[in-house]
Amino acid sequence: MRKRKTIRLIAASAILTPFAALAYYIAFLLRFGGMLEPDHVQAFVGTVGWVIAVKAAVILHSRMHQEYTQYVTFRDLLIIARVVTFSSIGITLFDAMVLGQVAIPRSVVLLDWGTSLLLFTAVRILPRLVRDQLQHWQGLSQPTGTKALIVGANDAGEVLLRSIRQSSDLHYQPLGFVDSRVELQGRRLAGLPVLGTQKDISSLVKQHKIEEILLTAGSLPGKEVRSLMSLGNSHGFRIKVLPSHEQLLHGQVDVAPRSVAIADLLRRPSVELDKQSIQQWITGRTLLVTGSAGSIGSEICRQLLALEPTKLVVVDRSETGQFFLERELRRLAPDTEISVALADLTDRDRMESLFAEHHPDIIFHAAAYKHVPLMEAHVGEAVKNIVLATRNLVDLAEEFQAEGFVMISTDKAVNPTSVMGSCKRLAEQYVQAKASTSNCRLVTVRFGNVLDSAGSVVPIFREQIARGGPVTVTHPEMIRYFMLIPEAAQLVIQAGAMGQGGEIFVLDMGDPVKIMDLAADMIRLSGLRVGDDIEIEVTGLRPGEKLYEELYSDQEQHRPTSHSKIMVAASEPRNLLQVLNDIGHLSRLADEPNEKLRAALAEIIPLQQPGQPIRAAA
Known about the structure:
By secondary structure, this protein is an alpha/beta fold.
């Protein structure tokens, strides 16, 4: 390695030294009109060695010789300007302080600065220009590769184009950009024209025989990606997605383009967080996350670690889930204290010992059963795991003087039609009622389905497609809200930081999606045809299942907050003694037969009939 560095240093010196001398000589020629008198030649010969030495010292100190010419950027030009400027200052100081007399005319120093800047810039840029020009000529003489349009005449589009041009593995022939901004039409980016807007894609495909449309992951809202997919199906072109900067930096993906995924179709504009308030709330605190091995709980853990808590306590009763989670979290944050606990939230003594050991400042309660049909068959377990577990945690948070408590709820708690929804609603009521008398900030965050979480509809559809079908949908008119896992976790943390106590926050889930359309999209994204290759089979609503989901009830006032993606479902809290009495009654019946416990639960939280019109949080 040392030998290689020495060779590189010698080679750089051999290249840069003649250019340093040439720039100095050109400065003398310019200063004296191209006619050097003997005393001018003597001044040049007597000082050129010192000038080259000063320039070499500055170049080596700045490590300019180590920069890679293949990827020259504007930053490299700034480095050259800085090197040349410091060289000129060094030459002037050396002339005045060491030589003892003004041997170099000041105008020569100034001219040398300009000529050095031009020559060094040429040395850096010429290899890149020659290579790019050769590639351009090759493209003109032998245009090969898939004809493509790039969506977005912006930074992401320019990086995508540059990646295509520089990679020998990406065989594309980009013909231009499309961008929704009218003011960009007719302009050029990196040599390619902006040919039109997204509305012009169908005509551009016919005109230029376009085979693929390229876009960067997350650059378009899901609604526009769905529109492009539909257009591609009817006009015979493909949509390909390339990774974003963030995905590449985190090593989450390969550089190669991929087909559109279901997450691209449901993606919304990225969430803007108030990072300052979140960090003030989280950094330096002891945090406890329940349900840590689950899809939402584990993502909350990942995002909390990035906010630098003093300690993270993760609680779940899944031994396997906790084992793999611990390995991942310790790799993500080796310097943060992480305590992994196996515990059942219904075991009050076990949870009390955990609180006594760790004294958490903030609790994120993500643990709960979530499968509606299973809870219909096991009512007592739903009551224990959702209602009683929440009561235990809230009471312990208050007893051990925690600062904040965030419970994750579900849209199934709104006008519930199932045991699971009723239990979640009762848990919400307990948190809200308790908040009015507690020093702990107790808040609830309510949202809908999380895309691709364990046991959710997307992995089920994916498995059914892999088996050859059929894909089963319980009702052709069933509609659900969807949210990406990272997005849901971010907004849960943001809502927790905003809460003052007693709020039920409702996350903006965007537009609802018809499950029948989701199934058809997934079949098409797998390269198959609905009906011909994979059938969609309607099986009928399952026990307790809603046809439509709602985000707030008739008794709740829908109020905005300072965050555009978070609302409050405001309502008058129930009397705490009444809620305690109801929970105590269910606790005594928890091991009774299903029907008896179901009837008792229905008296507390009346069940609604599914099929009411859906209302979105505006």
